[in-house]
Amino acid sequence: MSKTRFMTIERHIIEEERLHPEATGELSRLLSDLAIAIKIISLQVNKAGLVDILGLTGDENVHGEHVKKLDMYAHDMLFKAMDHGGHLCVMASEEEEDIIRIPDDFKLGKYVLLFDPLDGSSNIDANVSIGTIFSIYKRITPDHTPGTLDDCLQPGMKQVASGYAVYGSSTILVYTAGHGVHGFTLDPAIGEFILSHEDIKIPEKGKIYSINEGNYLYWHPGLKKYIKYLQEEDNATHRPYSSRYVGSMVADIHRTLLYGGIFMYPSDSRSHHGKLRLMYECNPMAFIVEAAGGKASHGSGRLMEIVPSNLHQRTPIYIGSKYDVDMVEEFIAREEKNR
Questions:
Q1: Can you tell me whether residue 239 is helix, strand or coil?
Q2: Per-residue pLDDT of the chain (339 residues; tens, 9 = 90+)
Q3: Are 96 and 149 in contact (CB under 8 A)?
Q4: Contact 120, 131 (CB under 8 A)
Q5: Would strands 111-119 and 88-93 be described as parallel, antiparallel, or unpaired?
Q6: Which candidate, 77, 210, 305, 318, has a CA 20 to 30 Å from the CA of 268?
Q7: d(Cα 125, Cα 123) in Å, to the nearest integer?
Q8: What residues have CB less than 8 Å from 3, skipping those under 6 apart?
Q9: Is 185 strand, coil or helix?
Q10: CA-only gyration radius of the chain, Å
């Protein structure tokens, strides 16, 4: 954590806006509304063990996964916090099959919000760090009309802002509007997000890799060789790497962003398209990591150049320090060439 000015997230957003004279303030207000929603979700996460909010609802979401009660609380809170501000024309959530339309009573804006309300929710009952991920685009349909699916299905490089919150030993909110990545820690005494990680830069090369090695048997041969390479001892290249895997993407990538290294969730012989969702998890994280000087790949190219075909599309992801992502791409490409 670097030494920074005492600054709330609201003040920081306003100061960033002043750097862009053409800004209307609409995106700033949208980000401020998101920060308020995340504060409320954080409060419920922190007291989840004390109230009847842990456990399953008995329902399944669009992916066939059992829905946690806290999942739906976070989903509903984000919708209620964001539907009436007049900044959005449409929303989409990992918990909903279709787009989420803005109610007729409210003004329509020029932005699109996609979110994963509670990433890593399978870890809720075990008290492992979880988080919220969000992604913001400008609409491509005409202003003052209801947003459509086309507004949501834009490649990640079209994002104007993205961010995530980690609910752990403290609640940290990290966001970027494309120029610098900044982290804010929630001070529960005053109820404000305070700037704690100013202008985050991911190291060019790390010493940590993060992947679910229980799936090793099903991986691409090039990835298997890359992992073995990381585990070998070689002082010149600072190997072996350490292995760290939380199982909550938001927690694993937050660590990777601060310390460097690589997080991987590949496709394999059982999941040919990977497991993580392009629109709700991978694109927003890729936007953040690239803004911090890192790299995000689908294994053979830039992840944010993927043109999505559906809201719940999955993709493999390799994300983190540029050197480390370049290296895994090289291993995969070399093995493809030899096959």
A1: strand
A2: 445 568 999 999 888 877 777 767 889 999 999 999 999 999 888 876 656 666 766 677 766 666 668 888 999 999 999 999 999 999 999 999 999 999 999 999 999 999 999 998 777 777 788 999 999 999 999 999 999 999 999 999 999 999 999 998 899 999 999 889 999 999 999 999 999 999 999 999 999 999 999 999 999 999 999 999 999 999 999 999 999 999 999 999 999 999 999 999 999 999 999 999 999 999 999 999 999 999 999 999 999 999 999 999 999 999 999 999 999 999 999 998 887
A3: no
A4: yes
A5: parallel
A6: 305
A7: 6
A8: none
A9: strand
A10: 20
Cα 206 from chain centre: 20
Q: What DSSP line would sit under 123-180, residue for residue? A: GGGGT--EEEEEEEEE--SPTTS---HHHH---GGGEEEEEEEEESSSEEEEEESSS-
Beta carbons of 214 and 179 less than 8 angstroms apart: no
Q: How many CB atoms lie within 10 A of CB 272?
A: 9
Q: Helices H, strands E: what count in the chain?
A: 8, 15
Distance CA 276, CA 136 (A): 18
The DSSP annotation for 2-48 comes to ------BHHHHHHHHHHT-TT--SHHHHHHHHHHHHHHHHHHHHHTG
3-state secondary structure of 288: helix
Partners of 167 in the β-ladder: 130, 171
Question: What is the amino acid identity at position 166?
Answer: V
Are the C-beta atoms of residues 8 and 190 closer than 8 Å to each other? no
Find where tokens 């990545």 sit.
181
Tell me how far apart the alpha carbons of residues 47 and 316 are, in angstroms, rounded to a whole number: 34
Q: How long is the chain?
A: 339
Q: pTM of the full predicted structure?
A: 0.93
Cα torsion at 216, 219, 223, 226 (round to 10°)?
20
The pLDDT value recorded for residue 120 is 85
Do the strands 208-210 and 242-243 form a parallel or antiparallel pair, or are they unpaired?
parallel
Q: How many Å apart are CA 327 and CA 330, to the nearest integer?
A: 5
Q: Give the tokens for residue 61.
A: 């979401």
* Residue-range domains of the chain with CATH: 9-197 (3.30.540.10), 208-338 (3.40.190.80)
**What pLDDT was estimated at residue 49?**
60
